[in-house]
Amino acid sequence: MIALPEVRHILPRDQRRWLALLLVVSLPLLHSGCSPVMNRFISRMMERINGPIEPVKNKIANPLRPNIGLSVLWVGHATVLIQIHDKVFITDPVFTRTVGMLVRRSVEPGLDPSAITRLDYTLISHIHLDHFSYGSLDLLPKGGKLLIPVGAAGYTPEFGFAETREMKPWEVLEKDGVRITAVPVQHFGGRYGFDISWCPNRGYTGYVIEYKGITVFFAGDTGYHPELFKEIGRRFRIDLALLPIAPVEPREFMQRVHADPKEAVQIFEDVGARIMIPMHYKPFNQGLEPGPAYTQGLLERVIEEKGYRDRIQILDIGEQLVLIP
Amino acid sequence: MTIPFCPPNSLPNKLLLLFVFAIIFSSTARSQESQSSSKLASWIPLQAVPSFTVTSRGDQSAFGFEWEAAPLLYSFGMTRLVSPWYAFVVEPPARFTGSIELVATGQINTAKIGSSYFAGSFQLLGHIPLIERGEHLGLNLGVAQYYYGGSSPVYAVAGISTLFGIVHLNVKHSAQPASWIGSLEIRLF
Fold this sequence. Notes:
The structure holds two protein chains of two kinds. Chain A is α/β, with parallel strands linked by helices. Helix content of chain A is 23%, strand content 22%. In chain A, the strands form three sheets. Chain A has a seven-stranded mixed β-sheet with strand order 8-7-6-3-2-1-15, with no helix packed on it. The longest helix of chain A has 20 residues, at 13-32. By secondary structure, chain B is an alpha+beta fold. Chain B has one domain. Chain B is built from three helices and nine strands. In chain B, strands 1-2-4-5-6-7-8-9 form an eight-stranded antiparallel beta barrel. Mean pLDDT of chain B is 84; it is low at 1-5 and 18-35. The chains are: A alpha/beta, B alpha+beta. At the A-B interface, α1 of A face α2, β1, β2 and α3 of B.
């Protein structure tokens, strides 16, 4: 018979009962306290946590080009590298393996951050973990300006950018011929969930970039609003709209704050853009829909119905499109 | 204004005076928008969430609940757009991106430590960011003076913070009298 070693407990028996009681009460509360929808989200997240990260083949090593009008490189999610002539912009840069420590990417970033040799403007649409990544911002050149929505300064570390500036809705920043306008969108604030009331009606924005006669609209993360985007369309003559098309499901949960492909195309029509590039549907699968292929399929169906094959350009992660040579 | 049972020039009373100054100072130093009532409305109930402690001192040991407040915090990791001074309401990044804070705690133990079930402390803590500006992992270092019934030992504090600076795992050690406190602290603002 094997003699078990005597266990010396740090706590006496009555104290251990308290600890056991606490665990017994708190663990079911932690689990059942979540809504059924939240439980499905957590299950989805746990499924992905050990999944493979698909590599991006033929990554572009030198994305910045001389003598170009407008080029766009989709890095993934809401991260887009935009070059308009000699000016370089990046939106919501995320290069990390996870967002929020637990939501893991399914495809690696479409660009190595070291390939970005200079940046004039880094645009942050809001402070959610999948759009405002501290670790990713540390990887980028700091010579340019960091623009954040009003209400986000309290969540912004000092990254060392030449200038950090909060932008109010419709506020304009103009320098060296570049004109950037923060435009209102429909989303929600906070970063960690418990601070959602921290910036209830602010802390999120879209941006319109104008330079040398070219206008690009970056919507960040938004739901559809019947008036907001028409107003943006009235104020600007937009060449390119970068619009989010996911997460899609559950629709009743997502609709107010996340446009689905059909609503994104409606935004595209409302702002009157010439070209639309969809984003924010991979590599982080945030909704309960089957996956990015499903979302892309929904978009392709709308493209067919509306006859927008030439105007809505679906990019792969890491693909660069030269729209104006 | 003094703390009952403490001499007027004692450390707790000096710290109380500092708290009062901190509140007055912060109300003028911080931006108007961060003083909104909606922030306070969400901050106040979150302060009820307890932290968990295990105290071992000689032949006494107890499991306990602890509540913390930060009457004064200086953040050295945030953008220059916001004041580095905070009082009580502290957005998590202000703490985990690098800060020094004064913390006041109240503790209820499930067994007596010294001669009381209750304890309190004042702590001076430094937070050093390690990974993702401290949002994923940070280091905590500092000192704490605990007040039990009949004694007030000084502890050295060391630990880590993780999960967006919300979860802190700290170990506190006092040589005289020899005692240890292990704590799982939930810091929401």
